[in-house]
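Saturday, quiet lab. Running sequence design on the structure tokens for the scaffold JK sent over.
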């Protein structure tokens, strides 16, 4: 009966995705906050919330999210004068965000949200519901009437997907680290230096916020050409926002009370250690960070491939026999024909661990034909290839 129920639910989700409508097509769109006359069609023009603000948290007490990444606060439709509306449609104040996203097959999106859109009190679902109800319902282009062939609640995955996709283009941690601004229990920084580092990456000054003298929020402003769903986001100077940070003496505290040191490349910032050392046991949720020559170089993504420039996948480790099994959003992970892979239908392999490193048949060394770069993903093998790699567990 349980298997039958899963099949029915999967079928419903697949049908929902197939039947989903599409945002209204916008021809000759106008850039929000730049119109000189009133525009009636707010399906193609964000109004009155014309400046979209992607907001990020740096939580340290308690810590949330990866130690080398900011996390998502939300996506806010601010008026073009510093004011904003909130809680605009009580009929769409949904209280089942996770199930809505699951019904639209958004498992990868949920995985990203569980990693990067996290609540300081541990209640992610309530946090997501709040952000959608307070801000998402006020984005004019998400109104049901702005969809052709509207399917119930389809604006919800559009809102969360756009917010996460936008967040992934705004790597605040790397932007600051590239300017020598890294988390520290002792160092302090100036507001001008922080803004200069962020502007060098973003193109405009964002707005920074502090709490008890410590940097804890960044607000990136955009004007949008067209709808939020399909339009072009253009970095913009903030309008009507003010910073709560002092000009000097700003702390940027490390997460989890530990000092974070970084090594940067042109595309990625990683936590560097001389040798891979486990940061947690293989249980619950975590990342599988890749190490070559004793330095971190990327991680595994959801299909089980090695990637150096993307977002790490969240894996679930579950005790099994004398070891554990692994699962990503793609499905169970296993070794098949000397290849590590994760997908639906894969028979789960029971792995073991040695000093926080993934082990298969007692060996912690895996292989690839080359170190991946750019958009290239590398297949991970258990048989000897040109490159040796080890995978460290990092609990999240």
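Result came back. Writing it out in full:
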């Amino acid at each position: 009966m349980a298997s039958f129920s899963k099949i029915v639910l999967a079928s419903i989700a697949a049908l929902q995705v197939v039947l989903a409508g599409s945002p209204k097509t916008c021809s000759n769109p106008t850039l929000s906050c730049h119109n000189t006359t009133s525009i009636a069609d707010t399906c193609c023009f964000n109004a009155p919330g014309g400046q979209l603000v992607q907001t990020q948290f740096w939580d340290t007490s308690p810590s949330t999210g990866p130690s080398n990444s900011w996390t998502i606060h939300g996506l806010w439709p601010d008026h073009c004068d510093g004011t904003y509306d909130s809680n605009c449609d009580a009929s769409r104040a949904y209280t089942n965000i996770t199930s809505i996203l699951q019904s639209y097959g958004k498992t990868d999106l949920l995985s990203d949200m569980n990693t990067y859109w996290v609540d300081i009190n541990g209640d992610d679902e309530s946090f997501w519901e709040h952000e959608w109800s307070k801000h998402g319902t006020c984005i004019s282009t998400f109104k049901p009437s702005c969809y052709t062939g509207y399917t119930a609640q389809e604006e919800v995955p559009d809102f969360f997907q756009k917010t996460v996709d936008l967040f992934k283009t705004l790597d605040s941690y790397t932007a600051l680290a590239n300017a020598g601004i890294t988390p520290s229990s002792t160092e302090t920084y100036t507001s001008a230096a922080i803004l200069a580092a962020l502007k060098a990456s973003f193109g405009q000054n964002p707005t920074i916020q502090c709490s008890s003298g410590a940097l804890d929020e960044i607000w990136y402003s955009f004007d949008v050409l067209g709808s939020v769903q399909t339009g072009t986001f253009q970095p913009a100077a903030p309008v009507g926002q003010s910073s709560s940070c002092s000009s000097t003496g700003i702390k940027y505290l490390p997460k989890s009370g530990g000092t974070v040191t970084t090594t940067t490349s042109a595309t990625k910032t990683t936590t560097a250690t001389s040798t891979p050392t486990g940061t947690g046991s293989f249980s619950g949720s975590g990342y599988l960070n890749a190490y070559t020559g004793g330095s971190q170089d990327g991680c595994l993504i959801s299909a089980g491939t090695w990637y150096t420039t993307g977002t790490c996948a969240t894996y679930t480790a579950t005790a099994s026999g004398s070891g554990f099994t692994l699962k990503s959003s793609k499905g169970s992970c296993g070794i098949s024909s000397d290849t590590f892979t994760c997908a639906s239908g894969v028979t789960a392999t029971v792995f073991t661990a040695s000093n926080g490193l993934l082990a298969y048949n007692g060996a912690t060394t895996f292989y690839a034909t080359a170190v991946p770069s750019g958009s290239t993903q590398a297949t991970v093998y258990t048989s000897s290839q040109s490159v040796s790699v080890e995978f460290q567990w990092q609990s999240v």
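Notes for JK: Residues 2-19 form the longest helix (18 residues). Residues 262-395 form one domain. Ask whether to fix the surface positions before the next round.
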